[in-house]
Amino acid sequence: MTTTVELRELCAQRLLAAADRAGQCTAFVGLDGFVDEILHAVDKRIDAQSYERVPTIARLAERIGEAAGKSTNIELVNQLTKLGGNGPIMANALAGFGLKVAYLGNLGYPHLHPVFDEFARRAEVCSIAEPGHTDALEFEDGKIMLGKHSSLKDVNWANIQARFGRDKFASRFQSSDLIAFVNWTMIPHMSDLWEALQRELCPNLNGPRRKMFFDLADPEKRTAQDISRALKLILQFEKHFDVILGLNEKEANEIGEALGLSRKAHNAEALSSLARELGAKLPVSTLVIHPVSYALALSGDAVDVVKGPYISRPKITTGAGDHFNAGFCLGKLLGFDNTTSLLTGVTTSGYYVRAASSPSLSQLAGFLRKWPGK
Q: pLDDT digit string (tens) for 3-13?
């Protein structure tokens, strides 16, 4: 895997040199919105202030399994209430880099939910529906996202036109350097929206090709037919945009299964092979797969792999993938190759899980120069 001192220094220099250029880049991101509660599950309560946390998902599963046929009580302790949803987290990170960001989603209607107030000061934000809610149970070996999604059905083309405006949407769609549609899984009308855009807006596009990013966001609960339809629509956007499809390890395997690939990939070599097979069936400009400790990108037949600054006990994990996506897209917008874009992505994520906040470009460059273990 490529993560040398020289590469990190080169990436830091390029990021700092591109600060003014980043400030001129525009991004139009959507379409979800959640209020996230970051929670720990209590294993043992010591006193009113202190407790021992359930350390792993496996241990929680054992405890729940032991309650079958009986009952049990599991205490959850709030660590943080924050803006959530793949879109707001990614867009907030892009704004932190200095990009001019416009965001459209369900962040409260008719009034913005207060958890998004700071985000609205950093970006141009418009909301067309009430936010969803996520209880994010975080453990040492992963997280469990328990979501309430009923308001996401209001994120549809009709409401976008009525509450945001068709002309305003078309203007953003036709001019932004980056367009990002994320959280397809939780937005039931997203595929219908993509069809409407391809039918009504794409035929009028002109000028240079721009970047379009997609994150399906854990499609396990969607049917194979739904997934197939979404992938075909994403591929059709390649006629007009340089499409980037981002997947984590679990999602890559799920998409592979939906496309009839039997392989289950859980290491860099196997994921690189899976990426090539996925790329043969989904010939988008760039396919990205980002497990926890590294990331890889496929363009054409070439796969680049970059190791990340892994930490075994992060402050926060919810939103780590969205920060990777923001960093990778930043790199592509600045004209970086896949290796440097991957490094920008894993460094953005690595900073976030340690600091529980999004980095600026200068903070990102500093983290590249003070890599953990250096």
A: 899 999 999 99
What ranges in the chain are assigned the alpha helix state H? 5-17, 19-24, 57-66, 86-96, 117-122, 157-159, 166-175, 190-200, 224-237, 249-258, 268-281, 320-333, 338-355, 361-369
What is the distance between the alpha carbons of residues 108 and 122, in angstroms, rounded to a whole number? 17
SS3 293: coil
In the predicted model, is pLDDT for residue 263 greater than 80? Answer: no
Residue 265, SS3 per DSSP: coil
End-to-end CA distance of the chain: 17
Distances (CA, A) of 325 to 10, 156, 244, 245: 20, 24, 10, 10
Cβ atoms of residues 194 and 180 within 8 Å: no
Over the chain, what is the mean pLDDT?
A: 95
| 65-121 pLDDT, tens digit each | 999 999 999 999 999 999 999 999 999 999 999 999 999 999 999 999 999 999 999
Distance (Å, whole) CA 352 – CA 347: 8
Nearest to 156 by CA among 194, 202, 101, 123: 194
Q: What is each CA distance from 51 to 41, 45, 137, in whole angstroms? A: 10, 4, 16
Using DSSP, state whether 176 is helix, strand or coil. Answer: coil
Q: What is the value of pTM for the model shown?
A: 0.91
Stated as kind and residue range, the H or E segment containing 215 is strand 210-215
Beta partners for 135? 37, 146
Q: What domains are there in the chain, each with its CATH number? A: 5-39+81-369 (3.40.1190.20)
Inter-residue contact 270 to 288 (CB < 8 Å): no
Q: Are 337 and 11 in contact (CB under 8 A)?
A: no
